[in-house]
Write a structure and sequence with these properties.
- It is a single chain.
- This protein is of the alpha+beta class.
- The protein contains 5 helices and 8 strands, in the order αβαβββαβαββαβ.
- A hairpin with a 3-residue loop joins strand 6 and strand 7.
- It is globular and about 45 Å long.
Length: 204
């Protein structure tokens, strides 16, 4: 399910609002969370069944105690970042907005566990992978902790993060960097192609 928050303004005309009934269900689930924090998570896959893997990651994150997936972006097909053009398969990318009571360190552990469940192998930097689960931002936290730098240190220069994030949250701000719309103007949309024939479902 492509996912705007129901009360968001107009954006990409291919992105339809989430039905109010679904929003109510997700909001009701939030009553199980005490003082949840907002987080932005980026998903990417360029090996295997990419769409199935991304959907599996969405579902696995939703199944995490203390975490609720609030919005799922459209799917984009993108060129691999940081490698020679044509040297790897293209990626499918998406961004999730979540609310969670997990602290950043526990959210990172869960993200890595989801990657491992889909046989993520860390053999080389920028290498192909079945699944990437990156924490882009956590509330307004700015931290240079080497275990988890927040916000993600390269998010501001990655169109494959900024484009889908803008789709689900047009007024988003990247902590320490400013409005996503301005960052996207600087980076541009080259190499990031919407896949309107594909869709990720928001967990029910």
């Amino acid at each position: 399910m492509s996912a705007y928050f129901a009360d968001e303004g107009q954006g990409d005309p291919t992105v339809q609002p989430v039905p109010a009934s679904v929003v109510r269900q997700v909001d009701a689930a939030d009553t199980t969370l005490s003082n949840p924090k907002r987080a932005v998570i980026s998903l990417g896959s360029n090996l295997g069944n990419r769409l199935e893997t991304l959907q599996g990651a969405v579902d696995a994150l939703e199944d995490t105690p203390g975490l609720r997936v609030k919005a799922v972006s459209p799917v984009y097909e993108t060129e691999p970042w940081g490698v020679e053009p044509g040297s790897q398969p293209t990626y499918f990318n998406a961004v999730l907005l979540v609310r969670t009571t997990l602290p950043p360190s526990s959210l990172l552990e869960r993200a890595q566990a989801v990657e491992e469940a889909f046989h993520r192998v860390r053999e080389e930097q920028w290498g192909p992978r079945t699944l990437d689960v990156d924490i882009v931002a956590y509330a307004e936290v700015v931290s240079d902790d080497p275990a988890l730098t927040l916000p993600h240190p390269r998010a501001h220069e990655r169109a494959f993060v900024l484009v889908p994030w803008y789709d689900v949250e047009p007024d988003a701000q990247l902590p320490g960097r400013g409005p996503v719309v301005h960052l996207l103007e600087d980076v541009g949309r080259d190499g990031v192609a919407p896949r309107v024939d594909l869709e990720l479902r928001l967990p029910e």
